[in-house]
Amino acid sequence: MFPHAARGPAVPATAATPPPRASFIVCTRNRVAALAACVGSIQAACRSHAAFAAELVVVDNGSSDGTADCLARLAAGSTIPMTLVSEPRPGLSAARNAGLERARGSLLVFIDDDCQLHPDYLRDLERHYADASPCVRGGRVELGDQRDLPFTIKRSRQREQLTRAIPPGGFVLGCNMTMSREVALRIGRFDERFGVGAPLRSAEDTDYLVRAFLAGVEVEYVPDMVVFHHHGRSERGEVEALHRSYSLGNGGLYLKHLGRAPWLLRHFYWAFRSALRELVGGPTFDPELQLSHRPIVLMNLRGACRYAGLALWRTGRRSPRQPVGQAAVEPR
After folding, report:
1. Whether pLDDT at 217 is above 70
2. What pLDDT shows up at residue 290?
């Protein structure tokens, strides 16, 4: 079992059904308009490969836009087992942990609520997990709406493995991330200081990749297992704000893993060097979207400071009677 039970009531899928091969975990908050399409795409992918048993776990992270009613309707007519979980504590990591607690499959698939699956997704998933080697694996993320700006996607057609030389941020996107149950138990829960709705705003998925890498688990990107991301950001200002949030989370990540993964600091060094070059006419971070290296450096530093404050606050709250080994149930 994953430590700490999920909060809130759940609607069980089916009382006596055997565990499915795969559990799709979708965390949602106030995106009722996109949610039905996401759920429908998962159901369609499951129908197209019905021999590969799957379930859907949807975690409502405190929505106030009618999501609960929408989910009840979707569950009533679902063609696959569907479990609804309420997790009122804010933060994507808290919602992901609630989903982990309720998922029953031997494979865990994290899909964002504004994404839609390719119909062949389960066939690709089954092929990649035909062997039992421990791995965290992510697939291709295409733009779902061509009116949106090309951000939070990954279109590479090359299969890759994460190494120390590759920046972990964006290597596998959290909107399309998979692993076996055994790997998830080995890595542990998501760190609830990271992610949308948490103090560090992002990087809960990158933190998970780094922890997997440090635990000796292979981290792989594959050019299939495709999802289409309907992120809805068509204005540059929206992308710039997200760019800053990603950099804030990465700054906290670098400090968190300073002792075990000091090589992460080389990515901050490269950003700092690129920002200096940009000041004298060097290339920007993303010329197409007009994104600069300079906010990366600034937000990395802010993220590191924020993480330090959170770490001190957590240390101060720890009970004097709590043994040091108790920290094993917390994200490493």
Report:
1. yes
2. 95
